[in-house]
Amino acid sequence: MVLLAGCASDPISVDDQVRGLINEGSQRVGSPGAAPPLREPRRAEWEVKGTTSTQPASTNPLAQDLRFDSAAANRDVAERLRQYATDEGVVRDGSGNAPAGALSLSLQEALKQSQRTGRELLSAQEQYISAAISLLIERHLWGPRLFNDTSFGFSGQGDNARFANAVNVVNNLRLTKRLPYGGSVEAAWVFNATEQLREVAGARYTQSSSLVLGGNLPLLRGAGNVAREDLIQAERNLVYEARTFERFRRQYLVSIAVDYFELLNTQASISNQERQLEALKKNAATRAALVEAGRVEAFEKGIADNEVLTAQAGLAGLREQFILQLERYKIRVGLPVDQVLTLSPDVIDLPEPEIRLEQAAQLALDYRLDLQNERDRLDDLRRGVENARNDELPDLNVNASATLPTNPGLERGGLNFDPDNVRYSAGVTLGLPLDREQERLRSRQAVINLQRAIRDYTQQRDNVAVSVRSALRNVELARFQLTLAEQQVEINKRRLFGQQLKAGTVDTQTILDSQNALLNAENQRDRARTNLRTAVLNYLLESDQLRVNAEGQLQRLPGMVGAPELPPSAQ
Q1: Which helix (H) or strand (E) holds 124?
Q2: What is the rounded CA–CA span in Å between residue 530 and residue 263?
Q3: Pick from 443, 518, 533: which is nearest to 486 by CA?
Q4: CB burial string 121-139: b at 16+ within 10 A, e below
Q5: Which of 265, 255, 256 is nearest to 322 (CA)?
Q6: Measured distance CA(199)–CA(164) in Å, rounded
Q7: Is residue 174 part of a domain?
């Protein structure tokens, strides 16, 4: 029994077991990325003072304890807004330098940062780890399990005011094992010792022990694979979570990249608006000179000045929009909100795919990990139907036990087991299924659930095919819109240039319309460029051809010319 105890004890730490199982799960689905790391638990996270307090403190001052400082009506609002933008790195100082302590962040660096501190990714990792722990728990239940129970008892018996008191100690050391197709076996060593606390007839101390081997085995209900249902499901759940986590890593990369593209798009809009504002100021100055020379009417100067004010208001709004986007992006990637960032224009410029719609749909149907999960869950429901039908069977169980005691003629048996006094028993129990109405109803319910799941799965397959076909068409649409937008920019530049050469003969509103048209064309061009980058990534995601390495970077596929090279460590 000591040997069994030594074998049953597992010297491997819990973290090592979980880490090994996670690596196993990732290998099952062919994940190219590293398995999520296990972080050391910190006692300070749960050992917090006041957790048992029935009256947690609240901070809610009265109105008279608060203070509100009113802003001056004549303050320079424009300068204050500019200072906000300067502090966030949106506007550079007079020398063109970024604020002190600013962090330059490229898309590749943002992806790496999100892998380390992104809250969404950490939550997905913990869900994956939780599935691995659940499987370890279930595997442990099916392994040899060692138990030791020790009980102490005190008893007394009176006889003519004389009491005989005794202390009884029973130690039960047992090893149990569940059988693969139902039932269990148990081996136990039972030690029994009694000590009389006062002199009575006979000895004061008696001791005996026995070895017990027993087991039970179902033959009908509860027999077969239904007995391992919990273990089977836990093993399959680990594969599902591995696929879900890998799919999430791809979605997360696209999400972080798209948010970065949107930041660059807003930044480009700010640059376009700043150029527009400078052009409008020059136009206003030109109109003022023409009015002073008497060449144009005075109201045209007012039109030009009004357009400058409109552009200034639009620029301030864009800067505030960018600051808000930037702060939310910091939260997503796990950076401090007060960390000043400057963005790098280096992005993932991917080539557009050359593939037919039906080919792209077939790739998605073959590769989509979430669709594979739904397909395999149908097998879980089919297995559930078989298990439900097994519950309708009668109970037929076989049980047997054998006990090898020490010599009953000895007061102190020690380990002197006596084969001549072996006791054994065996039996069969038959339980007729007189009332299986609930089981029959559950069986019918399981069939209905399976039929509904099959319809849902076929619908999801169709939705996947539609989504990937739409994603592929969006790539071509985004490229077409970008081509048109670039042509519009060139047309509006030539139009504005020609009008500026004839500033004295062209009215103010016409020039302003041309400048606004150029600004809109530039914004549409930048939006179309962002849409094209997003569309290519979305196509790779919808078809599940997107691959993410251990550092959270995009992996280049064969034939993907123009994709960023991987660093040597990632290769």
Answers
A1: helix 119-142
A2: 10
A3: 518
A4: bbebbeebbebbebbbebe
A5: 265
A6: 8
A7: yes
Q: Is residue 93 part of a domain?
A: no
Q: Is residue 540 part of a domain?
A: no
**95 pLDDT higher than 60:** no
Q: How far apart are CA 345 and CA 326, in angstroms?
A: 15
- Provide the token pair at 503: 């500033």
CA distance 8 to 221: 30
At 205 the three-state DSSP class reads strand
CA–CA dist 26, 243 (Å, integer):
8
Which are the contacts of 513, defined by CB distance < 8 A and separation ≥ 6? none
pLDDT at 6 over 70: no
pLDDT beyond 70 at 3: no
Taking CA atoms, 327 is separated from 240, 241, 319, 365, 385, in Å, by 34, 31, 12, 38, 51
pLDDT tier for residue 300 given thresholds of 50, 70 and 90: confident
Contacts 24+ apart (CB under 8 A), 386-389: 386/225, 386/226, 387/226, 387/229, 387/446, 388/439, 388/442, 388/443, 388/445, 388/446, 389/443
Integer CA distances (angstroms), 162 to 27, 156, 157, 158, in order: 74, 10, 8, 5
Beta bridge partners of 448: none
Nearest 5°: the CA angle 208, 214, 219 is 165
Task: Count up the domains in the chain and report the number.
Answer: 1
Name the percent of the chain lying above pLDDT 90. Answer: 54
Q: What is the pTM of this model?
A: 0.85
Ordered DSSP codes for 305-346: HHHHHHHHHHHHHHHHHHHHHHHHHHHHHT--TT--EEE-S-
DSSP per residue over 85-118, as a string?
A: HHHTTSS--TT-PPPTT-EEE-HHHHHHHHHHH-
Side-chain half-sphere CA neighbours of 173 within 13 A: 12
Residues 91 and 82: beta-carbon distance below 8 Å: yes
Summarised one tens digit per residue, pLDDT across range 179-234 is 999 999 999 999 888 776 655 445 566 778 899 999 999 999 999 999 999 999 99
Domain membership of residue 198 (yes or no) is yes
d(CA 414, CA 416): 6
- With a cut of 70, say whether residue 66 has pLDDT above it: yes
Q: Which residue has the tokens 């009694």?
A: 194
Please give the residue range of the domain that contains residue 427: 146-178+183-221+398-431
Residue 83's pLDDT is 81
571: confidence class by pLDDT, cuts 50, 70, 90: very low
Amino acid identity for residue 385 in this structure: V
| Contact criterion met (CB below 8 Å) for 241 and 127 | yes
Task: Mention every residue, 6+ apart, whose C-beta is less than 8 A from residue 26.
Answer: 33, 34, 35, 242, 246
Distance CA 76, CA 250 (A): 47
